[in-house]
Amino acid sequence: MRMNEMLKVGFVGCGTHSTNNLYPMLKYSRCRLVAVCDADENLARRNAGVFGAGDAFYTDADRMLDDCELDGVFVVGPAAMHYEVGRKVLARGIPLFAEKPPAPTLSQAEELVSLAREHDTIFMVGFMKRHGLTYKKAREMMTDGSFEPAAGFFKYGHWPMTDLNNMLLGMCSHPIDLAISFFGDVAEVSSTLSRDARNSISLAVTLRFQSGKWAQLMLDASQPRIQERVEISGVCNGGNALLVVDNVDHMEFHRQGQRGIDVLVPLPDINPQFDLADIQMWRPDYGIPNMGQTRHFIQGFAGEVREFADAILEKREPYPSGAESLKTMRVIAEILQQQTIETK
C-alpha cells in the first residue's frame, strides 16, 4: 500500500462511547470509513451517514465482512462482542482494533491472539490511556533515561459497581494496564477487597514486577465520577524525583534540588533558594484552538486510532498489541481467583 493511500476501514458498534470518542478520531488518522455495523439499524444508518460511510450500513457483521474489502476493522462494544466479532475479523486475516477488554475471559483473549498469529494479521487493544499525552510524556522520560521509576501509586475511582468482574474488565483495567506500561511484566499480585453499605467495591491491589519494582493500586467503585491520580517515585540525575499525573491532564515533575528551601537560617556554603525551579508542570490550555489541547488528544483516543492505522501501513505490531493486553488480563484473572478463594 502506498503511503498516500487511505485505509478502508469498517466499524462494528455505534454506542455512546464509540460515537463520541472514536468515530470522530478517524479524521485524524489515515482511515476512511467505508462501512458501519450495529444490531440497531437506526444507529448504524446514523453513524454511516454522519461519519462518511454513506449507505454502507449493516446489522450483520458477517455480511459487512463478506461485502466489503477492508484494510482494518474497529470493534467497540461489550466484551462479548469484541470476542465474537473479533474472531470473525481475524479469521479473515483483517487487522483488528478491539476496545478493551478484548474478551470476557483470559482464555478467550488468548484465543484472539492465537488467531492473529495464525493468520499473520494485526490485533490491537484499545487501552487508550497509553496514548494519553501526559502518560506518553512520562513513558518517554523513562525510556530516554531522564527518569528512572522505582515505585508507583495509582488511585482510580468511578461510579458505584457491585460486580468485581465487571469492575475490573471495564473501567479498572485502565490503571492496571497503565502500571504494566510503566513497570513491565508482573511477577506477583495480591489484593484486598472491601464493600461499603451499598455493596460498592473498593479494592487494594499490589503488583510486584519482574524488575523487583512495585506499584500500589487503589481501585474504588463508589465515586460519583471518575477520579484518577498517578504518582511515580524514582531518580533523576542521581537525586530523588516524583512524577505526578492528576486526572490525566495535569502533570508535575518534582526533582530534588541541590539546595533546599527548608533551610531557614543560612549556613556556611549553603544558600537557600526560594523558588520553584525544581518543579516542572504541564497542563493543557483549553483556550487555544489546537488539536493537541483537546480532550480526545489528551486522553488518548486520537492517539490509539492513529496508532492502529500507522501499524497497518508500516506492517508492524501496534502499541499495545493483543499479546501485550494479555498481561492485564492475567492480572485481572489472578485478582478474581484470589477474591473467589477469599469469599469461600
CATH class of the largest domain: Alpha Beta
Question: What fraction of residues sit in β-strands?
Answer: 25-35%
Specify the CATH architecture of the largest domain: 2-Layer Sandwich
Briefly note the structural class of the backbone: alpha/beta
- Overall average residue pLDDT: 92
Task: Give the total of domains.
Answer: 2
Instruction: Give a quick account of the main beta sheet: strands, pairing sense, barrel closure.
Output: 8 strands, mixed
- Dominant shape: globular
Structure overview:
The structure is a single chain. With 344 residues, this protein is an alpha/beta fold. It has two domains: 7-127 and 300-321, NAD(P)-binding Rossmann-like Domain (Rossmann fold); 133-247 and 250-283, Dihydrodipicolinate Reductase, domain 2 (2-Layer Sandwich), CATH 3.30.360.10. The protein is built from eleven helices and 14 strands. It has helices spanning 16-22, 41-50, 61-67, 79-91, 106-118, 133-143, 164-169, 173-183, 295-299, 301-314, 322-343; strands at residues 7-12, 31-37, 57-58, 72-75, 96-99, 123-126, 148-157, 186-195, 201-209, 214-220, 227-236, 239-246, 250-255, 279-282. The chain has an eight-stranded mixed β-sheet with strand order 8-9-10-7-11-12-13-14, covered by helices on one side. Strands 3-2-1-4-5-6 form a six-stranded parallel β-sheet, with helices on both faces. α4 (79-91) links the parallel β4 and β5. α4 packs parallel to α5 and α5 packs antiparallel against α11. The longest helix has 22 residues, at 322-343. The radius of gyration is 22 Å and the shape is globular.
